[in-house]
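Write out this protein's structure.
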Amino acid sequence: MRSVSVLLPYPFAGPFDYGLVEGLQLVPGDLVLVPLNKSVSVGVVWAEAEGVFGQALRPVIERLDIAPMTESLRKLIDWVAYYYMARLGSVLAMALRIDLRAAPAERLVYRAVPGFAGKLTVQRQKPLSCLGDRLLSAGDLARAAGVGPGVVKSLAAIGAIAPVAAPLFIYPDPDHPGPQLSAAQLDAGLALRDLVTGRAFSVTLLQGVTGSGKTETYFEAIAQCLREGRQALVLLPEIALSSQWLARFARRFGVEPAVWHSDLGPARRRDTWHAVAKGEAPVLVGARSALFLPFPDLGLIVVDEEHETSFKQEDGVTYHARDAAVVRARLSAAPIVLVSATPSLETVTNVARGRYRQLDLPDRHGGASLPAIAAVDLREFPPERGMFLSQPVIDAIHATLARGEQAMLFLNRRGYAPLTLCRHCGHRMQCKYCTAWLVEHRGRRSLICHHCGHTAPRPSRCPACDAEDSLAAIGPGVERIAEEAESLFPAARRLVMASDMISSAHEAARAVAAIESRQIDLIIGTQMVAKGWHFPHLTLVVVVDADLGLAGGDLRAGERTLQLLHQVAGRAGRAEAPGQALLQTYNPDHPVMQALIAGDFANFMTCEAAVRRPGHWPPFGRQQRA
């Protein structure tokens, strides 16, 4: 029996051999249905038939009528499995997270039928008047005309309008008029255009200060990719960022791109997957998992905020999407652009070694100035007992709100308090599965382990000594800061932005709209407020605990703290009004604080590299898990 190797999307180390029935011809990349135990599974032909077997093999059931998986994607899966020591089938599962046996839904739009002479009621005339020469879906047409869906159906039934199959995504217009670019943006944009036109692999770091217009600059590369008729992939670290990003994209290209993230429903994910595979999704923006979509002709990859730790997946298959994106760009003979105001030391080192190119945007767009950053020494200005905001910070917030401007309180810690302990016996509330401290979430009335997700109700008695009402919340979380802000600034309209309170792109879009329309005076948030947002009326950012993250054994603690605080400080003063950032710290002389105050990111990274190089620590060597 002739055979073929088929890889299945399960935690198997490699492919399985299946027999080929007479007349069935398969090539590597074909998607097939095969028997697996007592069920049927979708798999991918991973290798050519290697000969004839004497024993009978279970046969391939059928080849699916779907475009084969490209060689570049198969090679990426091989590389991820090898480099990150993962099972090959587990990596394949990240590329096949939809039900491929279900056909994509056909999207219908309606057009007016020329020459229709039938008599129409007033209600039926409304949709025809709205439609004109356009193509609209039944729902959009009904909403535009202010009629019910039944009216549109009746027009189709009498032949006044006719259905037409339409693609899921409209092709963006690369020459749609966009915002006016600065000279520096134009120079960088032209350089990126040339890289796309060259149709060759390259890696370019686009570094610019916060608010310098990096997004609009790499849009020029996307526009050139569209002119070349190829597909572009943009990876964002937080899907919550997509609301403002999508609005910018629509202003530049006239339509929104395809989107890929975990909030999409199964049907939308399936339809988007098929659109990508057919080349009908010219531009896709998504989270790290979008890297494994079946692009047939990928012409550009952009990794925005490339330094972000959320690009590293920790559960399941452990991999770093930024590094894997560089590999996919090489396998696709396409340029990749890494974008950041504070690039990772890995990227900085690759630039210094000549492996990556670099383009700089040194100034904020539109003449806006960078915020003035100052440290508030908590040894000199300690907060009142039981409080966490110092008097200089309170005064600065009052002054900002009095001017009609917005302020932000930043603390990278979800919940109400990071530790709950018994004042009677000293018992600390720990997770029973991983011994991490349980974080109190007062809004949910529960204790949550941020390490494994275990949740427990907050007890009224100490589980160790049975003392009643003896449990005390120790330290601040963002909920506790919000409580303090309510007492200090009762007239201010407040909004808390944390991942456990704003968990979807839709909720994030509503929050951003409220901030932009000045319905919010004081924003209180975790790291989700630090990245990519543009709030033109925000002029003051306060970091409640700038020392948080510097302690512990993390090799990259200083680097990551600098990147995070630089990003959050950069939310201030992005329009005409000047911005200010205040860092509450017990160690204002720390190199991270001094680098932030001086705005000397390059010198800090040079010193950081000098510390790591002698020990061959990353990026000058690799650390393996035990």
